[in-house]
């Protein structure tokens, strides 16, 4: 099985826009809080060197790193990549939906929309090709993911347990443990995912 973990966007426009947004968010947060790189590094569990690269817009952050930084700064990933909700209604055009992961075989994960702040809900669309896997660490305690398989078969692993979710089926998973998604079988996989996470 081909396996690539936490590849983020390619070298195209998505990566550049996301890197610039994250760089600006980290700089603004540190400025507002009068916080040193060392302090944010400890708070987020991200190395100081990585933070320097992020602020200089030279890093290509994984989804897991985006999540850790967002949680440490009290915002959502949707806030950082500018697909968060407004007080009433916010329409996000197809062109403005960021791709935050690309698999080595052409798969993708797009953050379609999300709410602002540390208590957040996100809506994702995942497309994976046979053999592709995405692995990530634990989310905050009590985080849940709601998954619906539109096409193909999803192999979901949470901690030590594994499950297969077929076309048309749905699942609720508590993802405060390391977890992974794999495209199982010979057909491409498409699934939607809603993430609900509360601030620690």
Automatic annotation (TrEMBL):
Keywords: DNA-binding, Transcription, Transcription regulation. The keyword Zinc-finger does not apply. Pfam families: Cupin_2 (PF07883), HTH_3 (PF01381). It comes from the Bacteria. SMART domains: HTH_XRE. InterPro entries: Cro/C1-type_HTH (IPR001387), Cupin_2 (IPR013096), Lambda_DNA-bd_dom_sf (IPR010982), RmlC-like_jellyroll (IPR014710), RmlC_Cupin_sf (IPR011051), TransReg_Diox_bact_type (IPR050807). SUPFAM superfamilies: lambda repressor-like DNA-binding domains (SSF47413), RmlC-like cupins (SSF51182). Residues 26-80 form the HTH cro/C1-type domain. This is Transcriptional regulator, XRE family with cupin sensor.
